[in-house]
Amino acid sequence: MPAVPDASPLIALSKMERLDLLALVHGQVILTPSVWNESVTQGKALGARDAGALERYAQGQPFSRARLTRRELALVNRLRETARIGLGEAEVLAVAKSRNALAVLDEKGARSIAVSLGIPHTGTAGLLFEAFLQRLITYEELAQHLEYLGGILWVSSELLAGILRKAREVEQR
After folding, report:
1. Which residue, 32, 40, 69, 102, is the most exposed by fewest CB within 10 angstroms?
2. 3-state class (DSSP) for residue 112
3. What is the pLDDT of residues 141-162, one digit of tens each?
4. CA–CA gap between residue 39 and residue 137 (Å, rounded)
């Protein structure tokens, strides 16, 4: 299933130097215009080193930059009017819904809207766990990435501990 990441997961994965996991886990990665603007254009303007790395990485396949359809734009506008989410989250949700893709969101409000709209979704921590399940990263790498993630984003310590507990169970099988 293609993935449509918001800026937060892209930036976090870029800082971890693991952008490759998006494509390895989900195949196709679709970047919306405002997510590109927030994570690359604004990041480069601020001098963020990871923004340049993201730009270089995203130029290749299987990353593609989306042009929103009229239908997607209508949903974006409706979400912006009725929900308290940013433009990036609204675009991610609209594109994921219309293109039968997975929304990759870390913002709790946007994830709640995904649930209400029936849009499959995950966050950065969930993506890392899936990469572990697919044997793309080791338990040690998962633990290291989750620790780093907890240092750059607000992530529930209970969630991180739960992921590590599940990963340990999988490893012991």
Report:
1. 69
2. helix
3. 999 999 999 888 888 889 899 9
4. 24
Q: How many CA atoms lie within 13 A of 68 on its CB side?
A: 25
Secondary structure (DSSP) of 40-96: IIHHHHTT-HHHHHHHHHHTSTTEEE----HHHHHHHHHHHHHS---HHHHHHHHHH
Kindly state the average pLDDT of the residues 60-70. Answer: 88
What is the residue type of 67? R
CATH of segment(s) 3-124: 3.40.50.1010
Whether residue 87 has pLDDT greater than 80: yes
pLDDT in tens, 101-128: 999 999 999 999 999 999 999 999 999 9
Which DSSP helix (H) or strand (E) runs through 4?
strand 3-5
Contacts 24+ apart (CB under 8 A), 53-61: 53/14, 53/17, 53/19, 54/10, 54/11, 54/14, 54/19, 57/14, 57/19, 57/20, 58/19, 58/29, 58/31
The whole-number pLDDT of residue 114 equals: 97
Q: What is the DSSP letter of 39?
A: I
